[in-house]
Amino acid sequence: MSTPTPPGGQRTLQKRRQAQSVKEKQQKQTPASTRQAGFGGSSNSVLKLYTDEANGLRVDPLVVLFLAVGFIFSVVALHVVAKVTGKLF
Amino acid sequence: MAGFRLIELAKPFLPLLPEVEVPYEKIGFDDKVVYTIIAALIYLFGQFPLAGVSKEASGVLDPLYFLRSVFAAEPKTLLEFGVFPVVSSALIMQVLAGLKLIKVNFKIRQDRELFQTCTKLFALLQYLVLANVFIFSGYYGTDLSVVQITALNVQLVVAGFFVTLLVEVIDKGYGFASGAMAITTVTISTNFVADVFGVGQFPVDNEGHTEPQGAFINLIQSLRASHKTWTGAIVGAFNRDYLPNLTTAFLVLALAASICFLTNFRLELPIRSTRTRGVNNVYPIRLFYVGSLSVLFAYVILFYIHVGAFVLVQLIAHNNPSSIIYKVVGGYASHNNLLYVPQFPLSLLTPPKSFVECITRQPLTPLFFTTFLVITGIWFAGLWQQISGSSARDISEQFKEQGITLTGRREQGVTKELDKIVPVAATTGAIVLGLLVACGELLGLKGKGASIIVGVSGGFALLELITAEYQQSGGQSALAQVLGAPSGGI
């Protein structure tokens, strides 16, 4: 039986270099989705779209709900106006 | 230039697009229930007829009738396109980013913001383009005035804008999990109930007889009607093809039941703690690893193909049988003055109206349609399990953080072992779902089969998150106490 190679020397250096490069490669690899990066978002079976806070025009959710209802009522009003005047369209 | 990035395009729009605020504090369980239900209800109210559609029937009919119910869209209403632009933009952008065709670094906050804004812009753009395709094809009537065109445009695009915002309200954490999926699930279930128990009457012949929308109500009404015999009534209830019949209702129920059954299939991997001895548990990997998303993706692609064909055949060739485009792509034949049925070769990707028609008139469709669903499903599932942050590597990283390992494996071997299971589960699940959808659709469900599958499996995905949430914070839920449910977290 041959004696095991003594520790240290060229090989260890090579191994260290290899480990280092693997580590660097992993760091360079960018995640493919927000969830993979660890910030929520769509998972394997659930589609979750807008989860990040962007610097846009901030609106309150209640405002959105009320405006949506308001929009639907404005379409209702449009129907009524078109029916009454009979010449809008 | 170091590289132009697509998401940079969204930069000028960043300050303009409305953003729902992220909640300052955690929203309670009851509030979430209320927000989700109200958002879905407002969406349902959006099924309101468009103003400005011309009264005379135009020759152009609905070419997408078999795709609508999957995306919770209702023809000639504010929700003409439903959540399709939202879902498709999200899926397509995420897939492109996953394939590294769009350069995004999700670790950087600004990139994530831009990506999200870009997705939203893409959705709005699709609403605009689709609205104009339908307006100028003559779907809302030929010879529309400028006022009508503007009014239709405004209604369709603003409705789309609000759909996007409603989805965002739920997604941002005010509601449960996913807005798009919650909304489609609610709409699909509502439609199913309306198809079985709907009481709205529709005129069916020139003598002034009416029939109700609901298949079951129709059976009872026909049995009581004086102008029908008993057998005629029963046969009619199972056979009518202008309104929902009992056969489709039973088929849809059977599909829903089989999905319920198959959802429970999972592989339970034994896991143990690396920190404490003797703490064992199981980690489930379900067969439908990507859930309904594979079907949704296949339908997104189908939608694009059919809209593209509609543009070519109707907008450019005016559905004229003598034009070259008609001969190459296939045109549309009207059916009952309600639907535009695509002809060969476009019919290869169109589910038939009934099983008999499928066998006699479209013998190639079963093969082609099924293959299409299965192949897109496999491709998507394979990709999605890798990029969605639930791949084998991501799971093993989670394990490492929580000090868990698979029983009989070292920590380093976990990724390898999971890599043997997760992609297989995802693709097999996608194949099974694709086959089920094909089965339902080829029997002539006109999109109802696909939609119930998307609805039920999406519902299960949501239910899982909702129960998890309930167990964490349901103890204080006033709703649960009122309903007398056992308090969670025990």
UniProtKB/TrEMBL annotation, chain A:
Tell me what organism the protein belongs to: Lachancea quebecensis
Region of interest called Disordered, as start-end residue ranges on this chain:
1-44
Q: Kindly give the membrane topology term recorded for this protein.
A: Single-pass membrane protein
GO CC annotation: what is one? Sec61 translocon complex
Provide a GO biological process annotation: intracellular protein transport
Record keywords, A-Z: Endoplasmic reticulum, Membrane, Protein transport, Translocation, Transmembrane, Transmembrane helix, Transport
Q: Which domain of life is it from?
A: Eukaryota
Q: What does this protein do?
A: Necessary for protein translocation in the endoplasmic reticulum.
Protein name (Swiss-Prot/TrEMBL): Protein transport protein Sec61 subunit beta
From TrEMBL, chain B:
| GO cellular component assignments | membrane
Q: Which residues form the Translocon Sec61/SecY plug domain?
A: 41-74
Q: Which UniProt keywords apply?
A: Membrane, Transmembrane, Transmembrane helix
Spell out where the chain crosses the membrane. 33-53, 81-101, 121-140, 146-167, 174-194, 246-267, 287-317, 364-384, 421-443, 449-467
Q: Which GO terms describe its biological process?
A: protein transport
Residue ranges annotated as coiled coil are: none
The superkingdom of the source organism is: Eukaryota
Q: Which InterPro entries match?
A: SecY/SEC61-alpha, SecY_dom_sf, Translocon_Sec61/SecY_plug_dom
Q: Which family does it belong to?
A: Belongs to the SecY/SEC61-alpha family.
Please give the PANTHER family that the UniProt record associates with this protein.
SECY/SEC61-ALPHA FAMILY MEMBER
Question: What is the designated name of this protein?
Answer: KLTH0H11066p
- Which species does the entry assign this protein to? Lachancea thermotolerans (strain ATCC 56472 / CBS 6340 / NRRL Y-8284)
